[in-house]
Write a structure and sequence with these properties.
Elements: E1 2-3, H1 16-21, E2 26-29, H2 37-40, E3 46-49, H3 53-64, E4 73-78, H4 83-96, E5 101-105, E6 108-110, E7 114-115, H5 124-136, E8 141-145, H6 148-152, E9 161-166, H7 180-192, E10 199-203, H8 209-212, E11 219-224, E12 231-239, E13 242-249, E14 256-262, H9 267-282, H10 287-295, E15 305-308, E16 314-318, H11 323-336, E17 343-347, H12 357-368, E18 371-374, H13 384-392, E19 401-403, H14 407-417, E20 423-427, E21 434-437, E22 440-443, H15 446-453, H16 456-460, H17 465-470
Parallel strand pairs: 1-2, 2-3, 4-8, 4-9, 5-8, 9-10, 10-11, 11-12, 16-20, 17-18, 17-20, 18-19
Antiparallel strand pairs: 5-6, 6-7, 12-13, 13-14, 15-16, 21-22
Helix pairs in contact: 3-5, 4-9, 4-10, 9-10, 11-12, 12-13, 14-15
């Protein structure tokens, strides 16, 4: 069976001939007027005309796999930033109370090991295959990142969600969505589809939080620093070693005062962990065991991942690739840096993506850093130098700002310039292990570059670092 879906750059109908040559005997199409009459008339091919091929594909994928979302508790997490951390934290909390949990998201699909998927939320046939495998392997719950693309493109249509979380919404993906309102409304679909008894955990400190659950039939649980929150966050304290905060639970959550500590750093992580904790509490899990689990959380790969350097500085690799995420990370580093320590930021912006955020991120990086090196991210089909120019256009000052197109060179330049007490933030790619240049994927890992440069014997034995790296 070949489903002809309308893609970003072309239409599946263009590939019908190739699909038939490869053995397809059934076509699912939603634009019959675009298919030649000879193909429509072929007696050896069954052509099924539907209103929307993507919707039909999702429905068929669910039917093929017996709807695994009814065999596991599927929890969706949506928002611009924090989805990955929140799903990974939710997994750890639920496993602490006896669940076996799968995770699907930006890092890939994981039960025991991570398998890359290519999308934050895979297309429906791949997604249902993954969910079915997880259910078959004994998972009782799945924590899944649900992107705005997945919701708008019907990848999760028909799935039964046991609960959902909204982290925040800031500018991103305006290359795909026409406006911030369209972007918000796509995410809102997740909450519109929740059943009446299912928990919807929303960040009400975000201006879009209330709109996200407007008209939702779900059991809404609001968290944040607002006085009317069902879970009130106060007294946030963050150091280089972790965070602590107080959480006052309202009557809908059992009326309790929790004092929480965790090894994750930053106010934004306090919000992410609080969201995951509330969903687990709403599902009736033991409060004391969950609080203990918070205290021993493990960090997510590529999210505020810290690497101590031999020169006394610290490198921090983070996925921050939106204005809000970069601002949050820099604000956290400002809070935890030592007296006299500088913040050196290396970052870029992806090509073929929202261009309006580039100067904004330049301004944010300059405001929160002592030194900025603007470099390539995933340039894709765009000229990397042109992307860098657009970022630099948002920076008023020129002192302490440098442009280096080659990302490896940029990272090494930052590390070489760092001294004891400094923090080198390498932002934008986080866990990613490749760089997209044109149509080519090249192996590239920010963390790998840092560790290669930081080889202890290169520092201690007096060898030239470049010679060692070449060897």
């Amino acid at each position: 069976m070949f489903v002809a879906i309308n893609g970003r750059d072309d239409h599946g109908l263009e590939y019908v001939g190739d699909a038939l040559d490869r053995g397809a005997t059934t076509l699912i199409i939603d634009a019959p007027e675009s298919l030649d009459a000879a193909t429509l008339a072929r007696e050896d091919v069954t052509t099924i005309i539907v209103d929307d091929a993507r919707v039909a594909m999702a429905q068929m994928a669910i039917a093929m796999h017996g709807d695994p979302s009814r065999r596991v508790k599927l929890y969706g997490v949506t928002g611009t930033n924090g989805k990955t951390t929140t799903t990974w934290v939710l997994r750890q909390l639920l496993e602490a109370v006896g669940e076996r949990v799968g995770v699907i998201g930006t890092l890939g699909a994981m039960v025991d090991t991570i398998v890359p998927t290519g999308y934050t939320t895979p297309e429906s046939p791949e997604l249902l295959t993954i969910l079915n495998t997880m259910a078959t392997e004994g998972c009782t719950a799945v924590a899944m990142e649900v992107s705005s693309h997945a919701l708008a493109l019907h990848r999760v249509d028909g799935l039964g969600f046991a609960g959902a979380i909204f982290t925040n919404l800031t500018q991103d993906h305006l290359d795909f969505h026409d406006s911030i309102e369209s972007y918000r409304d796509a995410k809102k679909l997740l909450f519109d589809r929740l059943d009446a008894d299912r928990p919807a955990v929303v960040n009400v400190d975000d201006v879009h939080g209330r709109a996200m659950v407007r008209d939702s039939h779900a059991r809404v649980l609001r968290f944040g620093s607002a006085a009317n929150a069902d879970a009130l966050v106060t007294g946030v304290r963050s150091t280089a070693d972790g965070s602590a905060w107080s959480l006052k639970l309202g009557p809908s959550l059992g009326s309790a005062q929790l004092e929480l500590r965790m090894p994750l750093v930053g106010r934004f992580n306090v919000w992410n962990v609080t969201a995951a904790l509330l969903l687990a509490l709403a599902e009736g899990h033991d409060r004391d065991r969950l609080v203990e689990a918070v205290a021993s959380l493990r960090p997510v790969p590529g999210r505020m991942e810290s690497i101590r350097l031999d020169n006394g500085a610290t490198a921090v690799v983070d996925y921050a690739h939106t204005p809000d995420a970069l601002d949050n990370v820099l604000s956290t580093l400002q809070e935890v840096r030592t007296d006299g320590g500088r913040i050196i930021t290396v970052f870029g912006c992806g090509g073929d993506r929202d261009r309006t955020k580039r100067p904004q991120m330049g301004a944010i990086a300059a405001a929160g850093s002592d030194r900025v090196i603007v470099t390539s991210d995933n340039p894709r089909s765009e000229d990397p130098a042109a992307i860098i120019d657009a970022i630099v256009a948002g920076i008023d000052r020129r002192d302490g700002v440098q442009s280096i197109v080659d990302r490896r060179e940029a990272i090494i330049a930052a590390l070489e310039s760092a001294r004891s007490g400094d923090i080198v933030l390498i932002a934008g790619k986080g866990h990613e292990t490749d760089q997209i240049v044109g149509d080519e994927r090249r192996h590239f890992d920010d963390r790998e570059v840092v560790r290669e440069w930081n080889r202890p014997f290169a520092a201690h034995d007096g060898h030239d670092r470049e010679d060692v790296a070449a060897a």
